[in-house]
Amino acid sequence: MRRTSVRTLVLVAVATAVVGWFVVRLLQSRGTLLPAVPWVVDVTVVALAAGVFWAGWTVRAYQQGKRPSLDAIRAARTFVLAKAAALTGALLAGWYGAQVLVTLPDLAIDAFRDRAVAAGVAVVCALVLAVVGLVAERFCQLPPEDHDGGEGTTTREDPETPGASTPA
Question: What mean pLDDT do residues 63-77 have?
Fold first, then answer.
């Protein structure tokens, strides 16, 4: 599985912001206002980012030899969790960013200004989650193997073909 690119995250955030802007504008045109983003959302997103970072840090510690053992499936799950966190952060940043954009013309009204500030803080927290996801993905990356064909090259048996060997 490949690491998530920043370009992909930006595209997800922008697409979500555009769709979210249309949805919020449609709701407002029908007389429905979304409630302000509660602070518990910010706390939850930052706590999730901390958990993802911690999981990635344990994989990094193992790769540096500072941790005696680590199950390979746990490292793979950590990578998938980090990838999901990065994408979720991008989605949330787009959604809350759309809410900020919709309220920009009405910042003179206190209620809309409060909504914009609450959504802006949520955007920052979502961006933290996305960045932590990318960092944790990088922690899970294996160092490149040496394929120079030198004396230290090892071979392993190919299970498909008896007697055939492939470089490790």
Answer: 83
